[in-house]
Amino acid sequence: MESLTSICEVILQPLPSNSLNADHTNKTQESIQLFSNLSASDHSIPNKVVHLLLSRAFFEAVMVVRLVLKLLSTRLGTLFVAGSLCFTGKWPYVNKFSEICLHKREKIVQKWLKHSFLTPVRLGFVFIKSLCLLVSFSQVNEKLKNPTWEAIGYHVETDEKHPKEQKERPLQKGMVETMNETDQTLVNSLMQKGLDVTENLKENICKINCDVVIIGSGCGGGVAAAILAKSGKKVVVLEKGNYFNRSDYSKLEGPSLDQLYESGGVLPTLDGKVMIQAGSTVGGCKAEKLLFTKNHQEKRRRKKCLGVISQVLNQKITKRLQIEAKVTISACGSLLTPPLLISSGLKNPNIGKHLHLHPVLMAWGYFPENDSNLAGKNYKGGILTSVYKPGLDDDYILEVPGLGPGSFAALYWNIYGSAHQMGSCRMGASEHEGAVDENGESWEAEGLYVCDASILPSAVGVNPMITIQSTVYCLAQRIANMF
Protein backbone atom coordinates (compact mmCIF):
# COMPACT_ATOMS: atom_id res chain seq x y z
CA MET A 1 0.00 0.00 0.00
CA GLU A 2 2.96 2.33 0.61
CA SER A 3 4.08 1.99 -3.01
CA LEU A 4 0.59 2.74 -4.33
CA THR A 5 0.25 5.79 -2.06
CA SER A 6 3.64 7.05 -3.25
CA ILE A 7 2.62 6.72 -6.90
CA CYS A 8 -0.68 8.51 -6.23
CA GLU A 9 1.24 11.38 -4.62
CA VAL A 10 3.33 11.75 -7.78
CA ILE A 11 0.21 11.85 -9.95
CA LEU A 12 -1.59 14.53 -7.95
CA GLN A 13 0.49 16.50 -5.47
CA PRO A 14 0.04 19.81 -3.62
CA LEU A 15 1.03 22.93 -5.55
CA PRO A 16 3.57 25.39 -4.14
CA SER A 17 1.95 28.48 -2.62
CA ASN A 18 3.88 30.88 -4.89
CA SER A 19 2.21 29.35 -7.97
CA LEU A 20 -1.23 30.69 -7.01
CA ASN A 21 -2.72 33.86 -8.46
CA ALA A 22 -4.00 36.12 -5.69
CA ASP A 23 -6.29 38.10 -8.03
CA HIS A 24 -9.51 36.39 -6.93
CA THR A 25 -12.41 36.98 -4.57
CA ASN A 26 -12.11 35.62 -1.05
CA LYS A 27 -14.46 32.72 -1.76
CA THR A 28 -12.71 31.80 -4.99
CA GLN A 29 -9.31 32.16 -3.37
CA GLU A 30 -10.39 29.77 -0.61
CA SER A 31 -11.53 27.14 -3.12
CA ILE A 32 -8.30 27.50 -5.10
CA GLN A 33 -6.31 27.07 -1.90
CA LEU A 34 -8.20 23.85 -1.14
CA PHE A 35 -7.51 22.64 -4.65
CA SER A 36 -3.81 23.47 -4.44
CA ASN A 37 -3.48 21.54 -1.17
CA LEU A 38 -5.09 18.41 -2.62
CA SER A 39 -2.92 15.31 -2.66
CA ALA A 40 -3.84 11.90 -4.03
CA SER A 41 -1.84 10.34 -1.21
CA ASP A 42 -4.82 11.00 1.06
CA HIS A 43 -5.74 7.63 2.54
CA SER A 44 -9.21 7.47 0.97
CA ILE A 45 -7.96 7.79 -2.62
CA PRO A 46 -5.49 4.85 -2.69
CA ASN A 47 -8.08 2.66 -0.96
CA LYS A 48 -10.68 3.49 -3.60
CA VAL A 49 -8.14 2.89 -6.35
CA VAL A 50 -7.54 -0.62 -4.99
CA HIS A 51 -11.29 -1.26 -4.83
CA LEU A 52 -11.83 -0.14 -8.44
CA LEU A 53 -8.86 -2.12 -9.67
CA LEU A 54 -9.94 -5.38 -8.04
CA SER A 55 -13.62 -5.05 -8.92
CA ARG A 56 -13.47 -3.69 -12.47
CA ALA A 57 -10.14 -4.22 -14.22
CA PHE A 58 -9.19 -7.21 -16.35
CA PHE A 59 -7.29 -10.00 -14.64
CA GLU A 60 -4.20 -9.18 -16.74
CA ALA A 61 -4.32 -5.53 -15.67
CA VAL A 62 -4.57 -6.51 -12.01
CA MET A 63 -1.56 -8.81 -12.38
CA VAL A 64 0.53 -6.06 -14.03
CA VAL A 65 -0.28 -3.56 -11.28
CA ARG A 66 0.46 -6.13 -8.57
CA LEU A 67 3.81 -6.90 -10.19
CA VAL A 68 4.73 -3.21 -10.36
CA LEU A 69 3.74 -2.56 -6.75
CA LYS A 70 5.60 -5.68 -5.61
CA LEU A 71 8.78 -4.49 -7.34
CA LEU A 72 8.49 -1.00 -5.87
CA SER A 73 7.97 -2.38 -2.36
CA THR A 74 11.49 -3.87 -2.36
CA ARG A 75 14.90 -2.24 -2.70
CA LEU A 76 16.07 -4.65 -5.40
CA GLY A 77 12.87 -4.21 -7.40
CA THR A 78 13.08 -0.42 -7.11
CA LEU A 79 16.69 -0.55 -8.30
CA PHE A 80 15.58 -2.54 -11.35
CA VAL A 81 12.88 -0.06 -12.45
CA ALA A 82 14.38 3.20 -11.12
CA GLY A 83 18.11 2.81 -11.70
CA SER A 84 20.50 5.23 -10.02
CA LEU A 85 17.68 7.55 -8.91
CA CYS A 86 17.05 5.29 -5.92
CA PHE A 87 20.63 5.51 -4.60
CA THR A 88 21.32 7.15 -1.24
CA GLY A 89 24.51 7.97 0.66
CA LYS A 90 23.51 5.98 3.74
CA TRP A 91 23.10 2.29 4.45
CA PRO A 92 21.57 0.31 2.81
CA TYR A 93 22.38 2.71 -0.08
CA VAL A 94 19.22 1.86 -2.04
CA ASN A 95 15.79 3.29 -1.18
CA LYS A 96 12.45 1.67 -1.77
CA PHE A 97 10.16 3.75 -3.98
CA SER A 98 8.17 5.06 -1.01
CA GLU A 99 11.40 6.28 0.64
CA ILE A 100 12.54 8.34 -2.36
CA CYS A 101 11.86 12.09 -2.31
CA LEU A 102 8.96 13.37 -4.41
CA HIS A 103 11.19 15.19 -6.92
CA LYS A 104 13.12 12.00 -7.77
CA ARG A 105 9.93 9.95 -7.89
CA GLU A 106 8.67 12.28 -10.61
CA LYS A 107 11.82 11.65 -12.65
CA ILE A 108 11.42 7.89 -12.20
CA VAL A 109 7.84 8.02 -13.51
CA GLN A 110 8.98 10.10 -16.50
CA LYS A 111 11.59 7.42 -17.19
CA TRP A 112 8.89 4.74 -17.25
CA LEU A 113 6.96 6.66 -19.90
CA LYS A 114 9.99 7.12 -22.18
CA HIS A 115 11.75 3.75 -22.33
CA SER A 116 10.19 0.82 -24.18
CA PHE A 117 11.95 -1.86 -22.11
CA LEU A 118 9.89 -0.69 -19.11
CA THR A 119 6.57 -1.23 -20.93
CA PRO A 120 4.98 -3.46 -18.21
CA VAL A 121 5.85 -0.86 -15.57
CA ARG A 122 4.48 1.90 -17.80
CA LEU A 123 1.21 0.02 -18.28
CA GLY A 124 0.86 -0.50 -14.54
CA PHE A 125 1.42 3.21 -13.97
CA VAL A 126 -1.15 4.16 -16.65
CA PHE A 127 -3.81 2.00 -14.97
CA ILE A 128 -3.07 3.51 -11.56
CA LYS A 129 -2.97 7.05 -12.98
CA SER A 130 -6.38 6.69 -14.66
CA LEU A 131 -8.06 5.28 -11.55
CA CYS A 132 -6.37 7.76 -9.23
CA LEU A 133 -7.49 10.82 -11.20
CA LEU A 134 -10.98 9.42 -11.75
CA VAL A 135 -11.43 8.96 -8.01
CA SER A 136 -9.85 12.30 -7.09
CA PHE A 137 -12.16 14.38 -9.29
CA SER A 138 -15.39 12.36 -9.10
CA GLN A 139 -15.71 11.36 -5.43
CA VAL A 140 -18.08 13.45 -3.32
CA ASN A 141 -18.51 14.16 0.38
CA GLU A 142 -21.69 13.98 2.46
CA LYS A 143 -22.83 17.26 0.87
CA LEU A 144 -22.43 15.74 -2.62
CA LYS A 145 -19.55 18.11 -3.34
CA ASN A 146 -15.94 17.66 -4.40
CA PRO A 147 -13.33 20.17 -3.11
CA THR A 148 -11.88 20.58 -6.61
CA TRP A 149 -15.06 21.48 -8.46
CA GLU A 150 -15.44 25.11 -7.45
CA ALA A 151 -11.79 25.83 -8.16
CA ILE A 152 -12.00 24.46 -11.71
CA GLY A 153 -15.39 26.06 -12.37
CA TYR A 154 -17.38 22.84 -12.51
CA HIS A 155 -20.96 22.92 -11.27
CA VAL A 156 -23.52 20.13 -11.17
CA GLU A 157 -27.11 20.30 -9.96
CA THR A 158 -27.65 17.46 -7.52
CA ASP A 159 -31.19 18.45 -6.53
CA GLU A 160 -32.76 18.49 -9.99
CA LYS A 161 -36.52 18.01 -9.95
CA HIS A 162 -37.50 15.31 -12.39
CA PRO A 163 -40.89 15.53 -14.10
CA LYS A 164 -43.54 13.28 -12.65
CA GLU A 165 -42.81 9.75 -13.80
CA GLN A 166 -45.37 7.41 -15.25
CA LYS A 167 -46.89 5.00 -12.78
CA GLU A 168 -45.58 2.10 -14.82
CA ARG A 169 -42.03 2.07 -16.12
CA PRO A 170 -41.35 1.09 -19.74
CA LEU A 171 -41.14 -2.70 -20.20
CA GLN A 172 -42.51 -3.22 -16.68
CA LYS A 173 -45.26 -5.61 -17.78
CA GLY A 174 -42.79 -7.99 -19.36
CA MET A 175 -39.91 -7.71 -16.91
CA VAL A 176 -38.79 -9.87 -14.01
CA GLU A 177 -36.22 -7.98 -11.95
CA THR A 178 -34.26 -10.82 -10.42
CA MET A 179 -32.54 -8.43 -8.02
CA ASN A 180 -35.88 -8.18 -6.19
CA GLU A 181 -36.64 -11.91 -6.20
CA THR A 182 -35.77 -14.93 -4.05
CA ASP A 183 -35.72 -18.68 -4.70
CA GLN A 184 -39.28 -18.84 -3.39
CA THR A 185 -40.72 -16.02 -5.55
CA LEU A 186 -38.74 -16.40 -8.79
CA VAL A 187 -40.73 -19.28 -10.33
CA ASN A 188 -44.06 -17.63 -9.58
CA SER A 189 -42.90 -14.32 -11.09
CA LEU A 190 -41.75 -16.06 -14.27
CA MET A 191 -45.03 -17.96 -14.63
CA GLN A 192 -47.01 -14.73 -14.17
CA LYS A 193 -45.29 -13.42 -17.30
CA GLY A 194 -46.70 -16.35 -19.29
CA LEU A 195 -43.57 -18.51 -19.36
CA ASP A 196 -43.51 -22.31 -19.21
CA VAL A 197 -41.40 -23.00 -16.10
CA THR A 198 -40.39 -26.26 -14.42
CA GLU A 199 -38.03 -26.91 -11.51
CA ASN A 200 -35.32 -29.54 -11.24
CA LEU A 201 -34.75 -29.68 -7.48
CA LYS A 202 -32.01 -32.30 -7.77
CA GLU A 203 -29.80 -30.08 -9.96
CA ASN A 204 -31.16 -26.82 -8.48
CA ILE A 205 -32.14 -25.58 -11.93
CA CYS A 206 -35.16 -23.63 -13.08
CA LYS A 207 -36.05 -24.58 -16.69
CA ILE A 208 -37.78 -22.08 -18.96
CA ASN A 209 -39.14 -22.92 -22.42
CA CYS A 210 -39.61 -20.28 -25.12
CA ASP A 211 -39.23 -19.71 -28.85
CA VAL A 212 -36.29 -17.31 -28.74
CA VAL A 213 -33.79 -16.41 -26.04
CA ILE A 214 -31.72 -13.25 -26.56
CA ILE A 215 -28.62 -12.60 -24.46
CA GLY A 216 -28.20 -8.84 -24.18
CA SER A 217 -30.69 -5.98 -24.55
CA GLY A 218 -28.55 -3.34 -26.22
CA CYS A 219 -28.55 -1.84 -29.67
CA GLY A 220 -28.84 -5.20 -31.42
CA GLY A 221 -30.67 -7.29 -28.84
CA GLY A 222 -33.42 -4.72 -28.36
CA VAL A 223 -34.21 -4.55 -32.08
CA ALA A 224 -34.14 -8.35 -32.45
CA ALA A 225 -36.46 -8.77 -29.46
CA ALA A 226 -38.95 -6.24 -30.85
CA ILE A 227 -39.07 -7.79 -34.34
CA LEU A 228 -39.36 -11.38 -33.13
CA ALA A 229 -41.96 -10.59 -30.45
CA LYS A 230 -44.01 -8.66 -33.01
CA SER A 231 -43.95 -11.72 -35.28
CA GLY A 232 -45.67 -13.75 -32.56
CA LYS A 233 -42.68 -15.52 -31.06
CA LYS A 234 -42.33 -15.96 -27.30
CA VAL A 235 -39.09 -14.10 -26.54
CA VAL A 236 -36.98 -14.11 -23.36
CA VAL A 237 -34.23 -11.48 -23.01
CA LEU A 238 -31.36 -11.99 -20.56
CA GLU A 239 -29.44 -8.94 -19.32
CA LYS A 240 -26.90 -8.71 -16.50
CA GLY A 241 -27.14 -4.94 -15.98
CA ASN A 242 -29.67 -3.31 -13.67
CA TYR A 243 -32.87 -1.63 -14.85
CA PHE A 244 -32.71 2.12 -14.32
CA ASN A 245 -35.36 4.64 -15.25
CA ARG A 246 -34.74 8.35 -15.86
CA SER A 247 -35.56 9.26 -12.28
CA ASP A 248 -33.00 6.73 -10.99
CA TYR A 249 -30.03 8.52 -12.52
CA SER A 250 -27.89 11.13 -10.86
CA LYS A 251 -25.96 13.95 -12.52
CA LEU A 252 -23.02 12.98 -10.33
CA GLU A 253 -20.33 11.44 -12.48
CA GLY A 254 -19.28 8.59 -10.17
CA PRO A 255 -22.70 6.97 -9.55
CA SER A 256 -23.75 7.47 -13.17
CA LEU A 257 -20.67 5.65 -14.47
CA ASP A 258 -21.48 2.74 -12.15
CA GLN A 259 -25.06 2.55 -13.42
CA LEU A 260 -24.48 3.05 -17.13
CA TYR A 261 -21.24 1.36 -18.13
CA GLU A 262 -19.56 -2.01 -18.07
CA SER A 263 -17.07 -2.08 -15.18
CA GLY A 264 -18.21 1.41 -14.18
CA GLY A 265 -16.56 2.95 -17.24
CA VAL A 266 -13.14 1.69 -16.11
CA LEU A 267 -12.35 -0.85 -18.84
CA PRO A 268 -8.92 -0.18 -20.37
CA THR A 269 -7.31 -2.11 -23.19
CA LEU A 270 -4.33 -4.23 -22.19
CA ASP A 271 -1.87 -1.69 -23.58
CA GLY A 272 -3.51 1.05 -21.51
CA LYS A 273 -4.01 3.35 -24.51
CA VAL A 274 -7.80 3.21 -24.86
CA MET A 275 -10.50 3.38 -22.18
CA ILE A 276 -13.53 1.42 -23.40
CA GLN A 277 -17.02 2.62 -22.48
CA ALA A 278 -19.55 -0.14 -23.11
CA GLY A 279 -23.12 0.31 -21.90
CA SER A 280 -24.55 -2.10 -19.34
CA THR A 281 -28.12 -1.48 -18.16
CA VAL A 282 -31.38 -3.41 -17.61
CA GLY A 283 -31.70 -6.90 -16.12
CA GLY A 284 -29.86 -8.92 -13.47
CA CYS A 285 -28.89 -12.28 -15.10
CA LYS A 286 -25.54 -13.32 -16.55
CA ALA A 287 -25.24 -15.98 -19.27
CA GLU A 288 -22.76 -18.71 -18.28
CA LYS A 289 -22.65 -20.95 -21.33
CA LEU A 290 -24.70 -22.09 -24.29
CA LEU A 291 -26.38 -25.51 -24.46
CA PHE A 292 -25.46 -27.72 -27.43
CA THR A 293 -26.30 -31.16 -28.71
CA LYS A 294 -25.02 -33.11 -31.71
CA ASN A 295 -26.65 -32.14 -34.99
CA HIS A 296 -27.31 -35.24 -37.12
CA GLN A 297 -29.30 -33.42 -39.82
CA GLU A 298 -26.60 -31.11 -41.19
CA LYS A 299 -22.99 -32.04 -41.93
CA ARG A 300 -21.56 -28.52 -41.90
CA ARG A 301 -23.02 -27.48 -38.55
CA ARG A 302 -22.15 -30.36 -36.26
CA LYS A 303 -23.81 -28.80 -33.23
CA LYS A 304 -27.31 -27.62 -32.50
CA CYS A 305 -27.92 -24.88 -29.93
CA LEU A 306 -30.69 -25.67 -27.45
CA GLY A 307 -30.52 -22.53 -25.29
CA VAL A 308 -28.43 -21.08 -22.51
CA ILE A 309 -27.64 -21.58 -18.84
CA SER A 310 -27.76 -18.38 -16.82
CA GLN A 311 -26.70 -17.37 -13.34
CA VAL A 312 -28.74 -14.84 -11.37
CA LEU A 313 -26.57 -12.10 -9.88
CA ASN A 314 -28.81 -11.81 -6.82
CA GLN A 315 -27.24 -13.83 -3.99
CA LYS A 316 -30.71 -14.60 -2.61
CA ILE A 317 -31.29 -16.82 -5.64
CA THR A 318 -29.24 -20.01 -5.72
CA LYS A 319 -31.06 -21.59 -8.67
CA ARG A 320 -29.57 -21.36 -12.12
CA LEU A 321 -31.81 -20.65 -15.10
CA GLN A 322 -31.79 -23.10 -18.01
CA ILE A 323 -33.57 -21.40 -20.88
CA GLU A 324 -34.38 -23.77 -23.74
CA ALA A 325 -35.34 -22.21 -27.07
CA LYS A 326 -35.62 -22.97 -30.77
CA VAL A 327 -33.39 -19.99 -31.52
CA THR A 328 -30.62 -18.54 -29.35
CA ILE A 329 -29.30 -15.06 -30.13
CA SER A 330 -26.13 -13.62 -28.64
CA ALA A 331 -26.33 -9.82 -28.48
CA CYS A 332 -23.74 -9.26 -25.76
CA GLY A 333 -21.74 -6.78 -27.84
CA SER A 334 -18.31 -6.99 -29.42
CA LEU A 335 -16.57 -7.36 -26.07
CA LEU A 336 -18.67 -10.10 -24.48
CA THR A 337 -20.12 -12.17 -27.33
CA PRO A 338 -16.73 -13.84 -28.13
CA PRO A 339 -16.08 -14.94 -24.50
CA LEU A 340 -19.56 -16.48 -24.35
CA LEU A 341 -19.08 -18.41 -27.59
CA ILE A 342 -15.54 -19.55 -26.76
CA SER A 343 -16.42 -20.63 -23.21
CA SER A 344 -19.30 -22.65 -24.68
CA GLY A 345 -16.90 -24.67 -26.83
CA LEU A 346 -17.03 -22.99 -30.26
CA LYS A 347 -13.67 -22.99 -32.03
CA ASN A 348 -14.04 -20.83 -35.15
CA PRO A 349 -10.75 -18.86 -35.38
CA ASN A 350 -12.61 -15.64 -36.25
CA ILE A 351 -14.32 -15.53 -32.86
CA GLY A 352 -12.61 -12.82 -30.83
CA LYS A 353 -10.48 -11.62 -33.76
CA HIS A 354 -10.68 -8.44 -35.87
CA LEU A 355 -11.96 -6.21 -33.06
CA HIS A 356 -12.18 -2.57 -34.18
CA LEU A 357 -12.39 0.42 -31.84
CA HIS A 358 -13.22 4.02 -32.66
CA PRO A 359 -10.65 6.05 -30.68
CA VAL A 360 -12.09 9.35 -29.48
CA LEU A 361 -10.41 12.55 -28.36
CA MET A 362 -12.44 14.86 -26.12
CA ALA A 363 -12.25 18.59 -26.90
CA TRP A 364 -12.26 21.19 -24.16
CA GLY A 365 -12.08 24.96 -23.89
CA TYR A 366 -10.32 27.21 -21.40
CA PHE A 367 -11.41 30.84 -21.06
CA PRO A 368 -9.11 32.57 -18.55
CA GLU A 369 -10.62 36.02 -19.14
CA ASN A 370 -14.24 37.03 -18.82
CA ASP A 371 -14.94 40.31 -20.61
CA SER A 372 -18.71 40.04 -20.35
CA ASN A 373 -20.80 41.65 -17.62
CA LEU A 374 -23.65 39.22 -18.26
CA ALA A 375 -24.48 36.87 -15.42
CA GLY A 376 -24.85 33.15 -15.98
CA LYS A 377 -22.94 30.19 -17.40
CA ASN A 378 -21.93 30.32 -21.06
CA TYR A 379 -22.15 26.55 -21.45
CA LYS A 380 -25.78 26.15 -20.36
CA GLY A 381 -29.16 26.96 -21.88
CA GLY A 382 -30.28 27.60 -25.45
CA ILE A 383 -28.82 29.88 -28.09
CA LEU A 384 -29.81 33.56 -27.85
CA THR A 385 -31.09 34.09 -31.38
CA SER A 386 -31.10 37.86 -30.79
CA VAL A 387 -27.31 37.64 -30.55
CA TYR A 388 -26.53 34.70 -32.81
CA LYS A 389 -28.43 34.34 -36.09
CA PRO A 390 -28.78 30.65 -37.03
CA GLY A 391 -28.38 29.54 -40.63
CA LEU A 392 -30.83 27.74 -42.86
CA ASP A 393 -29.66 24.25 -41.95
CA ASP A 394 -29.60 22.39 -38.63
CA ASP A 395 -25.82 22.28 -38.24
CA TYR A 396 -25.61 25.40 -36.10
CA ILE A 397 -26.38 23.27 -33.05
CA LEU A 398 -23.90 20.50 -32.31
CA GLU A 399 -25.03 18.11 -29.58
CA VAL A 400 -22.17 16.22 -27.97
CA PRO A 401 -21.85 14.12 -24.79
CA GLY A 402 -20.56 15.89 -21.72
CA LEU A 403 -17.38 14.80 -20.00
CA GLY A 404 -17.13 14.98 -16.22
CA PRO A 405 -13.92 16.12 -14.51
CA GLY A 406 -13.05 12.62 -13.32
CA SER A 407 -13.25 11.04 -16.78
CA PHE A 408 -11.47 14.01 -18.33
CA ALA A 409 -8.59 13.81 -15.86
CA ALA A 410 -8.27 10.06 -16.40
CA LEU A 411 -8.11 10.40 -20.20
CA TYR A 412 -6.11 13.63 -20.43
CA TRP A 413 -2.90 13.67 -22.50
CA ASN A 414 -2.27 10.06 -23.41
CA ILE A 415 -5.44 7.92 -23.31
CA TYR A 416 -8.21 7.65 -25.89
CA GLY A 417 -11.83 6.86 -25.13
CA SER A 418 -13.94 4.47 -27.20
CA ALA A 419 -17.69 3.91 -27.07
CA HIS A 420 -17.83 1.97 -30.36
CA GLN A 421 -16.60 -1.63 -30.51
CA MET A 422 -17.11 -3.65 -33.70
CA GLY A 423 -16.17 -6.75 -35.64
CA SER A 424 -15.05 -9.38 -33.11
CA CYS A 425 -17.40 -12.07 -34.46
CA ARG A 426 -17.68 -10.92 -38.03
CA MET A 427 -19.94 -12.09 -40.82
CA GLY A 428 -18.26 -13.97 -43.66
CA ALA A 429 -19.02 -15.88 -46.85
CA SER A 430 -17.40 -19.00 -45.37
CA GLU A 431 -16.26 -20.28 -41.99
CA HIS A 432 -12.71 -19.31 -42.95
CA GLU A 433 -13.69 -15.67 -43.46
CA GLY A 434 -16.10 -15.14 -40.59
CA ALA A 435 -17.70 -16.57 -37.47
CA VAL A 436 -21.30 -16.30 -38.76
CA ASP A 437 -22.94 -16.54 -42.18
CA GLU A 438 -25.03 -13.95 -44.06
CA ASN A 439 -28.01 -14.75 -41.82
CA GLY A 440 -26.03 -14.14 -38.64
CA GLU A 441 -26.04 -17.88 -37.85
CA SER A 442 -22.95 -19.54 -36.43
CA TRP A 443 -21.00 -21.70 -38.88
CA GLU A 444 -20.60 -24.30 -36.11
CA ALA A 445 -24.01 -24.50 -34.40
CA GLU A 446 -27.49 -24.58 -35.90
CA GLY A 447 -29.96 -22.25 -34.19
CA LEU A 448 -27.28 -19.96 -32.74
CA TYR A 449 -27.26 -16.41 -34.09
CA VAL A 450 -25.30 -13.24 -33.36
CA CYS A 451 -27.13 -9.91 -33.56
CA ASP A 452 -24.83 -7.14 -32.36
CA ALA A 453 -21.91 -4.97 -33.47
CA SER A 454 -19.53 -7.93 -33.46
CA ILE A 455 -20.90 -9.20 -36.81
CA LEU A 456 -19.75 -6.09 -38.72
CA PRO A 457 -16.94 -7.20 -41.09
CA SER A 458 -14.95 -4.02 -40.43
CA ALA A 459 -15.24 -0.65 -38.75
CA VAL A 460 -17.81 1.78 -40.14
CA GLY A 461 -16.81 5.42 -40.59
CA VAL A 462 -19.59 6.88 -38.44
CA ASN A 463 -21.38 6.17 -35.18
CA PRO A 464 -22.38 2.52 -35.76
CA MET A 465 -25.69 2.58 -33.85
CA ILE A 466 -28.03 2.93 -36.85
CA THR A 467 -25.88 0.53 -38.90
CA ILE A 468 -26.18 -2.09 -36.14
CA GLN A 469 -29.91 -1.56 -35.78
CA SER A 470 -30.49 -1.75 -39.54
CA THR A 471 -28.40 -4.90 -39.90
CA VAL A 472 -30.09 -6.62 -36.96
CA TYR A 473 -33.51 -5.54 -38.25
CA CYS A 474 -32.85 -7.45 -41.49
CA LEU A 475 -31.40 -10.47 -39.68
CA ALA A 476 -34.32 -10.63 -37.25
CA GLN A 477 -36.80 -10.54 -40.13
CA ARG A 478 -35.02 -13.52 -41.69
CA ILE A 479 -34.95 -15.41 -38.39
CA ALA A 480 -38.67 -14.78 -37.87
CA ASN A 481 -39.46 -16.25 -41.30
CA MET A 482 -37.37 -19.38 -40.71
CA PHE A 483 -39.63 -21.01 -38.12
Helix tally?
A: 14
Count the beta strands: 12
Q: What name is given to the CATH topology of the largest domain?
A: FAD/NAD(P)-binding domain
Give the terminus-to-terminus CA distance. Answer: 59 Å
Structural category: alpha/beta
Mean pLDDT: 85
Low-confidence stretches: none
Helix-residue proportion: 25-40%
Structure write-up:
It contains 14 helices and twelve strands. With 483 residues, it is α/β, with parallel strands linked by helices. The protein has two domains: 2-152, no CATH class; 172-243 and 282-354 and 424-482, FAD/NAD(P)-binding domain, CATH 3.50.50.60. The strands form three sheets. Strands 1, 2, 3, 5, 6, 7, 11 and 12 form an eight-stranded mixed sheet that branches. Strands 4-9 form a two-stranded parallel sheet. Helix 10 links the parallel strand 2 (205-215) and strand 3 (235-238). The protein is globular. It starts with a helix and ends with a helix. Residues 417-469 form the Glucose-methanol-choline oxidoreductase C-terminal domain. It comes from Mikania micrantha (bitter vine). Residues 211-245 form the FAD-dependent oxidoreductase 2 FAD-binding domain. Residues 284-360 form the Glucose-methanol-choline oxidoreductase N-terminal domain. InterPro entries: FAD-dep_OxRdtase_2_FAD-bd, FAD/NAD-bd_sf, GMC_OxRdtase_N, GMC_OxRtase_C.
